[in-house]
UniProtKB/TrEMBL annotation:
Its EC number is 4.1.2.5. InterPro entries: ArAA_b-elim_lyase/Thr_aldolase, Low_specificity_L-TA-like, PyrdxlP-dep_Trfase, PyrdxlP-dep_Trfase_major, PyrdxlP-dep_Trfase_small. This is Threonine aldolase. SUPFAM superfamilies: PLP-dependent transferases. GO terms for molecular function: L-allo-threonine aldolase activity. Keywords: Lyase, Pyridoxal phosphate. The modification N6-(pyridoxal phosphate)lysine is found at residue 211. NCBIfam families: GntG_guanitoxin. The keyword Amino-acid biosynthesis does not apply. The keyword DNA damage does not apply. Its cofactor is pyridoxal 5'-phosphate.
Length: 345
């Protein structure tokens, strides 16, 4: 094994704003991981995993939870639970479950997406109703999936009354409703409500511990006890049975305990960055800046991102003219001001 030594030819990183997945476990998390009681989770015998699943279920108001290595896995297991081959999944345009999950809804569950328009990530409930397919000439609708906050739309929030209206459509049409809630704690923080005010509308919810909440690994799927029993089988099929996973769940428990309260600060700093970039002449849609994600439109995004990286500020080029910044708890006010000086120089 080669040791990683500091490379004097590389610039110091002032702020890593590529994603909220880049956070590293805090010393307190490391300590909890070291001390965690563990067992074989494929047998359901890891006490720390069980505690994490119970806590996630309590916070979101579900009967049961199932810990998995990634949000892709929790989402795809949910799709497998709710659909049959040849069906459609109604989802907002740009949804992670299709755009960033590598065709897995087709590869694993044999289903295809039916996008509905979603300005600022919010689908119109009537558009969702119109997207439902029933005729013998069409692939029938198997489920509806929402994303809150919506990543590609800029970390945007679905208003609670729209959620309720889409839930009513799902009920009237007899369709299961899933939430890709990778950042649902951000949505709750932005609206000043308990997360259960959002999750209560859904049959299953996927939450990510490894985004803004700050855990190194993991997501939890929430639903009924019967659904989670079936989900356990799909998780094993996908290679997601993790044995003594309590070392990871221990960090997840701290992420659930301490993470949500930090998100308001991330949102405030995202707003600060957006306003600073706007003032410096960048093209920013402030209406889309609602949580911890900021998209900036500029020419030749990849070249600009590598110039900023040379100066110590990391961002993601997500298209020829689109750069994404994501705030998280390991970029505080001071680091952000340093980053702003670089970005507006
Ligand atoms: C990050 C993310 C996921 C899950 O991604 P993994 O990398 O598989 O954990 C799911 N949905 C959204 C909206 C995300 O941003």
């Amino acid at each position: 094994m080669t040791a990683t030594l500091p490379d004097p030819t590389r610039p110091r990183v002032l702020a890593d704003l590529r994603s909220d997945t880049v956070t590293t476990p805090t010393p307190e998390m490391r300590e909890a991981m070291a001390q965690a009681p563990v067992g074989d989770d494929v047998y359901g015998e890891d006490p720390t995993v069980n505690a994490l699943q119970a806590e996630a279920a309590r916070l979101t108001g579900f009967e049961a939870g199932l810990f998995m290595p990634s949000g892709t896995m929790t989402n795809q297991v949910a799709i497998a639970l709710h659909t049959r081959r040849g069906e459609e999944v109604i989802c907002a345009e740009g949804s992670h479950i299709y755009e960033w999950e590598l065709g897995m809804m087709a590869a694993f569950s044999g289903v295809v997406p039916r996008f509905v328009p979603a300005p600022l990530g919010v689908p119109d409930p009537e558009a969702v109703r119109l997207a439902v397919r029933r005729s013998v000439h069409q692939s029938p609708t198997g489920m509806i999936s929402l994303e809150d906050t919506h990543n590609k739309a800029g970390g945007t929030v679905i208003p609670l009354d729209v959620l309720a209206a889409i839930r009513d459509v799902a009920n009237e049409e007899g369709l299961p409703l899933h939430l890709d809630g990778a950042r649902v704690f951000n949505a709750a923080a932005a609206q000043g409500v308990p997360v259960s005010e959002i999750t209560r509308h859904f049959g299953t919810v996927s939450i990510c511990l490894s985004k803004g909440l700050g855990a190194p690994v993991g997501s939890v799927l929430l639903g009924s006890a019967a659904a989670m029993k079936q989900a356990h089988r799909y998780r094993k099929m996908l290679g997601g049975g993790m044995r003594q996973a309590g070392v990871l769940a221990a960090a997840g428990l701290l992420a659930l305990r301490d993470g949500p309260a930090r998100l308001q600060g991330d949102h405030r700093r995202t707003r600060r960055l957006a306003e600073a970039l706007l003032e410096a002449g960048y093209s920013v849609n402030l209406a889309a800046v609602q949580t911890n994600i900021l998209y900036v439109t500029l020419p030749d995004a990849a070249a600009q991102v590598s110039r900023w990286a040379e100066a110590g500020v990391l961002a993601s080029a997500l298209g020829p003219d689109s750069v994404r910044f994501v705030l998280h708890h390991q970029v505080g006010d001071e680091a952000l001001e340093e980053a702003i000086r670089v970005l507006t120089a």
